[in-house]
Design goal:
FAD/NAD(P)-binding domain, 5-stranded parallel β-sheet, 3 domains, 19 helices, Fumarate Reductase Iron-sulfur Protein, Chain B, domain 2
């Protein structure tokens, strides 16, 4: 156990965020660095429970009490070894995961949870700072080849594990750079892209090969892949976005979030002037989740005139609901860094239609308040209103993987949710073709993507060699402690 009285004597404390009026003028990350001595005190709040429910809250099964104790003792080298034992990319999850481990923390039953996410993040950052993150080059090569399609967190995790097992791995990405949503969907102010690039450099040194600007299914067919590689891992994500079928949807100025966010990242990195920008516009975002908050923060930094974020669900309570008891992940009211900066949040509203001017440009949204009855959202008569908007961003989630030619070429099947079917070994009905991450699971968290990538890698290794020494943390049917 770390500090036996830490959870009693030390209050929860997170790193400070940079002042709003400063951070909205640049694209740098929001949080300031916390003194390591202060972090050690936070790690000392861990109780080292007899049954650590944080393990169950974390899909990766991170050994949280162990590296909390090691950080409290100042044993940084041992802490990063324990962290890397279960998580290939703690610098990603430490920034982007919503931390279901913290809502499952035993301390959180009647007090503030341990700052697990921040201890994780600082552990890996200290390791990079002290040059402890080295490439793990395999002792020998198996002679087996694997193609990983998609370079998001699931694909990268699978590729790194398989490379370290001695297989020759090529990662295919249709964009011009590797990273998938990590590069093009996550704003710079949440994770600067040099964080991604330094990990990719490690992977290249280990032997993973990256093939960018390749549209698999067109530039190279599924049959060509199968003849060239001994196994294929589909990590193509759930990029089939949910749309809104209401009058005026096709007006100019209405975009999907993933049409908009990549331009914000390119602007942040001075790669190009964005073709889609919120500068000087009245922006309305449909969707109250993380993607909507990413759009919000991006629009603010681009100089939007106003920003309003809409959500069809009622405003969550600030306390854990009675039907979502510990250790489940509760749906409570949360304020992201972007919500601190500007904009208005509206709940229990639905978009009925869009107003369009003579040039086909959107000018307003027609809304109605809603209530949930009989299993669906019903409009409340007399609650109609209009909101001015000349830019609308749809951030309403995703329904599954793209129905591309590749899936037909590989002859894989989809389930009734639109995801790629797989068995308990992550294998599709086409022998040698595996699937992991959102493509097989459906839209989910980054921590689930990494966990599935690691698990699929062990299944592929076993398929290729008849056995595996890679960890196999979860089955495809596993579900989080969420309701």
């Amino acid at each position: 156990m770390a500090d036996p009285k830490g959870f009693l004597n030390t209050p929860r404390e997170l790193p400070k965020r940079r002042p709003v009026d400063v951070r909205i003028k640049d694209w740098k990350e929001v949080y300031l660095e916390q003194e390591f001595s202060a972090l050690q005190k936070q790690a000392g709040r861990c109780m080292d429970c007899g049954i650590p429910f944080c393990h169950q809250g974390c899909p990766l099964g991170n050994l949280i009490p162990e590296w909390n104790d090691l950080i409290w003792r100042g044993e940084k080298a041992e802490a990063i070894d324990r962290l890397h034992a279960t998580n290939n990319f703690p610098e990603f999850t430490g920034r982007l995961c919503p931390a279901p481990c913290e809502t499952a923390c035993v301390v959180s039953i009647n007090a503030d949870a341990v700052t697990i996410k921040q201890v994780e993040l600082r552990t890996i950052e200290e390791a990079f700072k002290e040059n402890r993150v080295k490439p793990m080059i395999p002792d020998r090569l198996t002679g087996k080849t694997v193609a990983v399609i998609g370079s998001g967190p699931a694909g990268l995790a699978a590729a790194q594990q398989l490379t370290r097992a001695g297989h020759t791995v090529a990662v295919y990405e249709r964009a011009d750079k590797v990273g998938g949503l990590l590069r093009y969907g996550i704003p710079e102010f949440k994770m600067e892209k040099n964080i991604l690039d330094r990990r990719l450099q490690q992977m290249e040194q280990e032997g993973t090969r990256f093939r960018t600007n390749v549209n698999v299914g067109a530039d190279i067919t599924g049959s060509q892949l199968r003849s060239k590689y001994d196994a294929i891992v589909l990590a193509i994500g759930a990029t089939n976005w949910r749309d809104l079928n209401v009058p005026g949807r096709n007006a100019k100025g209405i975009y999907q979030a993933m049409e908009y966010l990549p331009w914000g990242n390119k602007q942040a990195l001075d790669i190009s002037t964005p073709e889609i920008s919120a500068a000087g516009k009245d922006v309305v975002i449909l969707g109250g989740g993380d993607t909507g908050a990413d759009c919000l923060g991006t629009a603010i930094r681009q100089g939007a005139k106003s920003v309003t974020q809409l959500e069809i669900m009622p405003r969550p309570t600030e306390e854990r609901p009675s039907n979502q008891p510990w250790p489940t992940y509760p749906m409570i009211y949360r304020v992201s860094s972007a919500h601190e900066e500007a904009g208005e949040r509206m709940y229990s509203v639905s978009t009925e239609s869009f107003d369009i001017d003579e040039n086909g440009q959107v000018t307003a949204l027609n809304l109605v308040e809603t209530k949930f009855e009989n299993g669906k959202f019903e409009p409340i008569k007399g609650s109609e209103r209009k909101i001015r908007a000349n830019m609308v961003l749809l951030a309403m989630g995703f329904t599954g993987p793209e129905q591309s030619q590749l899936l037909k070429q590989l002859e894989v099947e989809l389930d009734n949710r639109g995801n790629i079917k797989r068995n308990s070994e992550y294998e599709t009905q086409t022998e040698g073709v595996f699937v992991c991450g959102d493509a097989g699971r459906g839209q989910s968290l980054i921590v689930w993507a990494i966990a599935e990538g690691r698990s699929a890698a062990s299944a592929v290794d076993k398929y290729l060699t008849g056995m595996t020494q890679l960890p196999y943390p979860i089955e495809p049917t596993a579900r989080p402690l969420m309701v």
